[in-house]
Amino acid sequence: TTNAVITSALEGKGATLVEERIPPLRLTLYPHLMWDELCVSVADMAEPIQQLTRNNNPQERQSIPFTLIQRKEKLGDLLYEKRQYGKAKWACIKMKEKQYEQSICLGFMKLMRYICEQNSSGLYLGITVPIVTIVHTNEAQSAMTQAVTVAYYLPEVLQDEPPHPFDSDIIIEEWPATIVYSRSFRGITNEDSIMREINLLAAILESPELCLRDTFIIAGYTNPAAANRHNEIWFLQRP
Q1: What is the DSSP string of 61-72?
Q2: Which of 70, 86, 152, 172 is the most exposed place for a label (fewest CB within 10 A)?
């Protein structure tokens, strides 16, 4: 099982036990990673996973603050929400793997190392939700590009002076205040499901032309390894 692999890594039993369990791990956690990439990932994540296990109380997760502007419903079903997010600092990493799932898993692991003490403060920074991924499409919104940005919202107490990442690939960025149109969906996120959700929200919005046509955000509220993830698609209103 996945837990057995993680336990083996945490106990320092080496790559042998990890290698014996690789088929189920690849299928359930990181299905698109090659074996050598996965060995490095599990080994590198041993300490962050241990730290996260000690600190990850769901009640202590901080939600990204926003102001609700509008809720659009039809026959009792929520179609979308219009929200305003304030200016804030995010830890961001750009990824460009062959498949979206591979990019978000590797990006998420790098951010987890930053959150779990691999930063200038030497402290566990705490989990904020959602973890977001910026995706891009062509102008016709018919296909995604490979380049994505995975981003972690820095907790309120760290906004003024964010800890410096040890990983030079992680950049601290300040994002401007933004109005988003958000629609919830569940399940895996890949190129097909994301394009489906983009087209669905575009059809629902009264004025989709008010939003950027080639840049969108996938907000993830659960671990990217989870099968029935809680996600949102965000359209970004033009400045």
Answers
A1: PEEPP-EEEEEE
A2: 70
